[in-house]
Amino acid sequence: MCGRYVIKTPPALMRQAFGYGEQPNFPPRYNVAPTQPIPVVRLVDGRRSFALVRWGLIPSWVKDPRGFSLLINARAESVLEKPAFRNAMRRRRCLIPADGFYEWKRDGDRKRPHVARPQGLVAFAGLWEPWMGPNGEELDTACIVTTAANRTLRSLHDRMPAVIPAEAFDLWLDCANVEAETAAALLVPAPEDLFEAYEISTAVNRTANDSADLMEPLAPGAREAVDARPAAKAKSKKDDGQASLF
């Protein structure tokens, strides 16, 4: 799963890493949430291009997104077959720059937030779709492709974003010459040493909080203070891992 993530690499360094021609200027984001605009890298006329799109994929055939599930993640195991993702997997693959992501580990009735922090800037596998509304409104949308978690992160959650290595950027992006089945072979767990993970403050739970402090390790004694509060009653609901935040 990936329901919140981090983008803190300066724009100039991100441009250098991904090799796109645009020169966007954007602030660091430490708590990127679904429905917000996110940067993606995709091929346009054979060249890498930067774009801002909505996080939460809307397939082109959806008439009214208000009645459609929020698709922030796509499972690698079914991305070639599911109607919501298969066209994008064939024709509209993208890279989603990231400097880490958050995961909530269940501990009894609580969910304890953790950050999975890579050694540097990484690229999540992404899919994007253009959507046009009944009144002519246009919106580009995207989702993050997830795969089975590696051993490093498995204790937090059984899913993690699929990370595309730099040497495979062209293979993933070139939908015109690389078949979806070939690209899907890249959707594997990240190397064990790519991410470190540690518990952080519950301040990350509020999307309004957006600062570098969110990535700091939980202060000594902070867990005991949280444990002293009454636990919230857990809600029971079915989750297929495609649409929910955590």
- Identify low-pLDDT runs: 234-246
Shape, principal axes of CA atoms: globular
The averaged pLDDT comes out at 90
The helix/strand order is EHEEEEHEEEEEEHHEH
Q: Helical residue percent?
A: 10-25%
CATH architecture grouping: Alpha-Beta Complex
Which secondary structure elements does this structure contain, and how are they paired or packed?
Blueprint: E1 5-7, H1 11-18, E2 29-32, E3 37-44, E4 47-55, E5 73-75, H2 86-91, E6 93-98, E7 101-107, E8 110-118, E9 122-132, E10 138-148, E11 159-161, H3 169-173, H4 180-184, E12 195-199, H5 222-227
Parallel strand pairs: 4-10, 5-10
Antiparallel strand pairs: 1-2, 3-4, 6-9, 7-8, 8-12, 9-10, 10-11
Architecture overview:
The chain is mainly beta. The chain has a single domain (5-203), classed as hypothetical protein yedk fold (Alpha-Beta Complex). Helix content is 12%, strand content 32%. The protein has five helices and twelve strands. The protein has helices spanning 11-18, 86-91, 169-173, 180-184, 222-227; strands spanning 5-7, 29-32, 37-44, 47-55, 73-75, 93-98, 101-107, 110-118, 122-132, 138-148, 159-161, 195-199. Strands 3, 4, 5, 6, 9, 10 and 11 form a seven-stranded mixed β-sheet that branches. A three-stranded antiparallel β-sheet has the order 7-8-12, with no helix packed on it. The protein has a two-stranded antiparallel sheet with strand order 1-2. The radius of gyration is 18 Å and the shape is globular. The termini are close together.
Name the features.
246 residues, mainly beta, hypothetical protein yedk fold, 5 helices, 12 strands, 12% helix, 32% strand, globular
